[in-house]
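Let's practice the habit of predicting before peeking. Look at the sequence and jot down your guess about where helices and strands might fall. Then scroll down.
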Amino acid sequence: NQYDAHFKDAGWPLPARFASTKEGMGRLVAELPKLDVVIFSSLFNYADKPVDLKPYAAAFRAYLERGGAMFVTDAMYGGDTDWLKDIDSGIALASEGGCKSPYKELEPRHPLRAFPNEPGNDVHWGHLLLNGDKWEVVAGCCGGRKACAALARVGKGLVYASASVHGGHWGTNMELENFLAFLQTGNPVTLDT
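Done guessing? Here is the structure:
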């Protein structure tokens, strides 16, 4: 429900929802061929006993290779990121918490941080540890030395991961809008900043 108001305000249909349960993931995998973007919202698969997502990795790899996209918000928990390495070792991701530094924009600013919105000084509560070789840093902190948002390509598809919080939600509405615009442009986008 995290993005409902934003979808409504933007005039977009509300997205289908799939619970982070075995049944929900089974339904999601069956629907993947019909989906352009899968949004993994805040606290996805965060539980005392998270769902083992490894059995779904091959289906998500095929989805990405065909051109699907994944928007992973609140990418700060093993339950929602550990399985990324099973999709493709190049998108292995972990995290470390505890940082409250403002974002440090890259120079030049990454298109995902500039079009159609300039999110500004989002805050986050940790760093993404980009353990795979396919990740590209989109925004950082701590003087730009640490990643807070990153993008990876798998086949024709894209994975965006974020540790940001804005307006009480993990993963900002502006980040989602920018990601969707980035997908629609056919990327790469070059900006003269």
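How did you do? The radius of gyration is 16 Å.
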